[in-house]
Amino acid sequence: MTPLSSKKNNENFGLSSHQKYLTVRNLSTDIAKPLSAEDQQVQSMPDVSPTKWHLGHTTWFFETFLLKQHFPKYQEFSADFGFAFNSYYELVGPRQLRAERGLITRPAIDEVLSYREYVDDYMGKLLSETEPTTLENLKYLIELGLNHEEQHQELALMDIKHVFSRNPISPAYQHSKPALIASTHKTEWFSIRGGEYKLGHSDENCFTFDNEGPEHKVLVSDFQIASRCVTNREYLEFIGDNGYKRPEFWHSDGWDMLIKENITCPFYWFLDENKNWGEFTLSGNISLNLDAPVCHISYYEASAFAAWAGKRLPTETEWEIAAKKFKTNRDREVSCNELNSGNLSPVPSGELKSNLGPVGMFGDVWEWTSSPYIPYPGFKVAPGAVGEYNGKFMVNQMVLKGSSCLTPAGHSRITYRNFFYPHQRWIFSGLRLAY
Questions:
Q1: Radius of gyration of the chain from its Cα atoms, rounded to whole angstroms
Q2: Is the peptide bond prior to 46 cis by the omega test (within 30 degrees of 0)?
Q3: Measured distance CA(180)–CA(348) in Å, rounded
Q4: What is the tens place of the pLDDT at every residue in 286-321?
Q5: CB 72: neighbour CB atoms within 10 A?
Q6: Which candidate in 245, 268, 378, 384 could, as Cys together with 280 as Cys, close a disulfide (CB 3.0–4.6 Å)?
Q7: Residue 431: exposure state from Cβ atoms within 10 A (0-12, 13-18, ≥19)
Q8: How far apart are the C-alpha atoms of 29 and 116, rounded to whole Å?
Q9: How far is C-alpha 284 from the chain's CA centre?
Q10: CB proximity list for 240: less than 8 A, separation 6 or greater
Q11: 189-430 — its CATH code?
Q12: CA 80 to CA 71: how far, in whole Å?
């Protein structure tokens, strides 16, 4: 059994080429290029990690789980880096507390970049010098490392947005503004008949995280799903109807959070001197795009809006069934507003194309579901430290589906299960209604 999967690894993983490894790794350093050394040091809240830490941690992953264990020629770069850049792998050893990663002023960013180059050089040797049969057995672990890095590329951008939002001069990560689409369509509803369906991943020719399987049968009732995500304009109607002041729409924990933190609107929203709504983005402060999907809302806010609208959030089963039944924007060869678009913000969905099905299921915002993040029937945690990747987090969190405007192209898929705690708001999260 290979780490985190019982699936066979075959040539479709495409990891015989060193170029794929470098392409993913180089994107991380490209993301950091607009940032100063000072920018990359700041930890603006416990959930945020400094950019420098992301660069070090993703490198530590390859060093720890591949080079140290499977390449005898490897010599450790620094004995101190394990403590600094381990995230939550208890079986590997002690680590810096998550909330105190910003205190790691040393190593400096230049040394972290040298660390990356050092590990990349050895990974090139591992890929070129390892006996083919052994390399075949390592393919899933290498692919896991690359997908792990892609997750941190999105996290790094989420985190630097929060860092910049706390800066009194509201700096911009990039100076280009998000693309503008004139409008979005009126919400339509797509019907799906109930019955027995299959949920989870079954394609052995494609990388998946362990939490996406095993595939299993589920029973669902008839349901309707919205043609697009809820927009800022629609969310303003909820605010205007005192949605943040009416406890009948809220979970108890969500209501307590509103009162404690004085929350009255989505994260990063503000009223300007003319009482017009704006939002802080990776392009700085801009006017609120009313037709873009609402973003940076917690599960509690998403659920409250759905209750106010007389609808509900879809379950992850319903979302996945809909995405498979109606070919998604990705399947239709329609471009997704993901990281490669360069927008770094959600954009309006535009007009609905005939009766093809829901739009925007990938890109723009991760979509909250009403499903708790729990293991699928038959799920087993892989042995060893690498088994700590997903299984131990399967409690007290909620599943999000799709992808966002910060997700690297091709990283997500229909069976992908993102997960966050219901109170978290700095993620690029929105909602699609169902009933």
A1: 22
A2: no
A3: 7
A4: 999 999 999 999 999 999 999 999 999 999 999 999
A5: 7
A6: 268
A7: buried
A8: 9
A9: 21
A10: none
A11: 3.90.1580.10
A12: 20
Q: Express as a percent the part of the chain with pLDDT over 70.
A: 94
Q: How far is CA 188 from the centre of its chain?
A: 27
Domain boundaries of the chain, sorted by first residue? 11-165, 189-430
Residue 3 pLDDT > 60, yes or no? no
Burial class of 1 by CB neighbour count within 10 A (0 to 12, 13 to 18, 19+): exposed
- What does pLDDT average to over the chain? 92
Structure tokens at 11: 């040539």
- Cis geometry, peptide bond prior to residue 94 (ω within 30 degrees of 0): no
Round to whole Å and give the CA distance between 20 and 355: 37
CA 174 from chain center: how many Å? 20
Within a 13 Å sphere around the CA of 182, how many CA atoms are in the beta-carbon half?
1
Determine contact, residues 367/430, Cβ cutoff 8 Å.
yes
Do residues 321 and 263 touch, judged by C-beta distance below 8 A?
A: no
User: Taking the mean position of all CA atoms in its chain, how far away is CA 92?
Assistant: 25
- For every residue of the chain, which 3-state class applies, written as one string? CECCECCCCCHHHCCCCHHHHHHHHHHHHHHHCCCCCCHHHCCCCCCCCCHHHHHHHHHHHHHHHHHHHHCCCCCCCCCCHHHHHCCCCCCCCCCCCHHHHHHCCCCCHHHHHHHHHHHHHHHHHHHHHCCHHHHHHHHHHHHHHHHHHHHHHHHHHHHHHHHHHCCCCCCCCCCCCCCCCCCECCCCEEEECCEEEEECCCCCCCCCCHHHCCCEEEEECCEEEECCCCEHHHHHHHHHCCHHHCHHHCCHHHHHHHHHHCCCCCCCEEECCCCCEEEEECCEEEECCCCCECCCCCHHHHHHHHHHCCCECCCHHHHHHHHHHCCCCCCCCCCCCCHHHCCCCCCCCECCCCCCCCCCCCCCCEEEEEEECCCCCCCCCCCCHHHHCCHHHCCCCEEEEECCCCCCCCCCCCCCCEEECCCCCCCCEECCCEC
At 349 the pLDDT is 87
Q: Of 193, 242, 25, whose CA–CA distance to 121 is shortest?
A: 25
